[in-house]
Specification:
Strand content of chain A: 25-35%
Order of helices and strands of chain A: HEHEHEEHEEHEHHEHEEEE
Shape of chain B: globular
CATH topology of the largest domain in chain B: Rossmann fold
CATH superfamily of the largest domain in chain B: P-loop containing nucleotide triphosphate hydrolases
Radius of gyration of chain B: 24 Å
Largest interface: A-B, 41 and 46 residues
Number of helices of chain A: 8
Distance between the termini of chain B: 103 Å
Shape of chain A: globular
Oligomer: heterodimer
Strand order of the largest sheet of chain A: 5-3-2-7-8-1-9-10-11-12
Number of domains of chain B: 2
Number of strands of chain B: 12
Largest sheet of chain B: 10 strands, mixed
Strand order of the largest sheet of chain B: 5-3-2-7-8-1-9-10-11-12
CATH architecture of the largest domain in chain B: 3-Layer(aba) Sandwich
Largest sheet of chain A: 10 strands, mixed
Chain lengths: 260, 360
């Protein structure tokens, strides 16, 4: 079998660990506890695409786009052409008001046109994001704009805020299935608690990159590992990494984390 | 970008200057680790810079907050304080329940003189929605009155809000909405939250734009405190854990000495968990016996309202795993009740049916 062309992740060390990069057209997961660097990794993945002239979409479910823009400014990456879809739900109203399903309303905005201040919930209506409307919207967007790279940040927010609890498992499965069928290379971030168990999404994704965060006397140590990678060999070792001014930098001398 | 200073010198250095403005942050840690002191510093710094500050208190009544702050000798008279502590739960059905949101109670710290008494006819209940409404109302009224927006808001605590008002509801969505609401106010917000279950991913921790974690552990016969930053979006930060001392000037972060963990993890030693289970049994026994005596007192119509209030605090402490505190309060309740029951006149004689005459 001739190996398919790989898609670079934008992080040299990670490409090496994945033996070249991601197999295109599949959903992948990057997981880790809050503050591990998931959003930065995802952003580097998109930046790599933008530099190669690919069309990229970032779906914000956790933080408002204006904050994302400010946060990424420190890295001085050129993200002007990145499409950002604001899928944050508005403030809930506790009385019946007209709800706007985002599928009918929302358009992604170019990073360069995003303002400094947060979008306010309008007085008489509020936007709610459900997984169905988001899926619908993505479907339309993929047809219209032919995205090559999509990041969903985060899948946990989608699960927590856009699904009803009793159907979480089924809906997650169907959403992942949808991403796989749409043939776009997608990277989903997943939040992990401090002490981890196995994720439902990890079964369904074609690969999982996990970020670890450990604390010892000298501060926070970060590590990255490839937990699973279907259809490719990969590096089993755990590598440490730092978040620098240039983003995530993996130290390629293997060193196992020493759990305290 | 301008940073929002915390008022604690070492912490500002750790944060690379301070918080990024207009975002919500989480302060976490076990009870008694200094979370409330930290937010007091934060609000005090705001007042010093002539910024309007608001404290939303759900845990302690304002008068207690005031007296606690007074021990540090801080003058926080200009602090606006929003009392969202719920009333004594009315356990009788005829009392009507009103939403806190409809009775706005914001005062300057200097006007706080007494604990709000629960009304006898209706009880205030706190819901996320009503707290949100109160804050919004106060925010816009303040804007109208003074043409100034609140710059700093502290919510103490999210744990209380979750416990009081989110049972059975989809709390994750409510928290998401609440944090969105705080972000849209464009004030820098500190949310106090206790991490009750380390295995569970709590919504506010991943939605918050940063987390400052307070640590407390027993080292020999000393209680040690430390502080660390576990997440801080959009900024570099000092990721080391630093020792903290809480003295009469408030909180001081010692930057030059890295905290010595020395094998004892902040989570406690293995032997402690056994001790803890025994303590749990003990506390629940005492609470149960107090409840029995309360029933007894009710039957004999002895006034014990204050004991009921105290017991509810013991239960709250218990729920939050502050067993020592729960034990202390419960024992106090117990002795109070015994005393009063002993002092009270003997129960009215039970009407005994006359004995049927014995026929021989």
């Amino acid at each position: 079998m001739i190996p398919a062309a790989r898609m670079r992740t934008g992080i040299a060390g990670l490409d090496k660990m994945l033996h070249g990069g991601f197999v295109p057209g599949r959903p992948y997961i990057v997981s880790g506890p809050p503050g591990a660097g998931k959003t930065i990794l995802a952003m580097q993945f998109l930046r790599e695409g933008l530099e190669g002239g690919e069309r990229c979409l970032f779906v914000c479910l956790e933080e408002p786009p204006n904050e994302l823009k400010i946060n990424m400014r420190a890295f001085r990456w050129n993200l002007d052409d990145l499409d950002v879809l604001d899928a944050n739900s508005d403030i809930r109203r506790f009385e019946p008001t007209p709800l706007l399903e985002i599928s009918t309303e929302e358009e992604p905005a170019k990073m360069r046109s995003i303002g400094e201040r947060i979008r306010k919930t309008p007085d008489f209506e509020s936007k709610e994001v459900s997984v169905h409307s988001l899926q619908q919207l993505l479907k339309t967007l993929l047809v219209k704009k032919h995205y090559e790279r999509v990041v969903i940040d985060s899948m946990t927010a989608l699960r927590y805020f856009c699904m009803r609890e009793f159907e979480e498992a089924v809906t997650t499965q169907s959403f992942m299935r949808y991403l796989a069928e749409s043939k776009v290379t997608s990277l989903l971030t997943v939040e992990l608690p401090d002490e981890t168990e196995v994720l439902a999404e990890a079964f369904l994704a074609r690969g999982e990159v996990r970020l670890h965060k450990l604390r010892d006397e000298t501060g926070i140590k970060r590590f990255v590992s490839v937990e699973k990678y279907k259809g490719s060999s990969h590096d089993d070792a755990v590598y440490s990494f730092d978040i620098t001014n240039a983003g995530i930098a993996i130290n390629m001398t293997p060193r196992a984390p020493t759990a305290s | 970008m301008d940073r929002v200073k915390t008022g604690i010198v070492g912490l500002d250095t750790m944060l690379n200057g301070g918080f990024l403005p207009a975002r919500p942050y989480v302060i976490s840690g076990p009870t008694g680790s200094g979370k409330t002191v930290l937010i007091a510093h934060f609000l005090l710094e705001g007042l010093r810079l002539q910024e309007p500050c608001l404290l939303v208190t759900l845990d302690e009544p304002p008068i207690e907050v005031k007296s606690n702050m007074a021990t540090f000798g801080w003058n926080m008279d200009r602090l606006k304080i929003l009392d969202a502590t719920p009333d004594v739960r009315a356990h009788k059905r005829q009392r009507s329940v009103i939403d806190v949101g409809t009775s706005l109670d914001v005062r300057d710290m200097e006007d706080v003189t007494d604990i709000r008494q629960s009304s006898q006819v209706r009880a205030l209940e706190v819901t996320v929605h009503s707290v949100q409404k109160m804050i919004k109302q106060e925010f816009s009224q303040h804007l109208e009155r003074t043409k100034q927006r609140y710059k700093r808001i502290a919510v103490d605590s999210m744990t209380a809000l979750k416990m009081f008002s989110m049972e059975g509801q989809d709390s994750r969505i409510l928290i998401q909405s609440f944090l969105r609401f705080l972000a849209e106010l464009e004030a820098t917000t500190l949310i106090v939250s206790e991490r009750l279950d380390r295995k569970k991913l709590e919504t506010e921790f991943f939605l918050g734009r940063g987390e400052i974690r307070m640590h407390k552990w027993i080292d020999g016969n000393m209680i040690r405190h430390a502080i660390s930053i576990d997440k801080f979006r959009g900024s570099a930060f000092d990721d080391k854990m630093h020792p903290v001392t809480i003295g009469d000037k408030g909180m001081v972060v010692a930057l030059d000495a890295p905290s010595q963990i020395r094998g004892t993890s902040p989570e406690g030693k293995p032997g402690e968990s056994l001790l803890e289970t025994r303590l749990i049994d003990e506390v629940s026994n005492v609470i149960e016996s107090v409840m029995r005596q309360i029933e007894e007192a009710h039957r004999r119509q002895i006034p014990i309202r204050d004991v009921e209030v105290a017991l509810s605090r013991a239960m709250l402490a218990f729920q939050r795993r502050n067993y020592q505190k729960a034990m202390k309060i419960a024992l106090a309740c117990d002795s109070q009740l015994r005393e009063r029951i002993a002092e009270a006149p003997p129960p009215p004689p039970v009407a005994m049916p006359p004995r049927p005459p014995v026929i021989r």
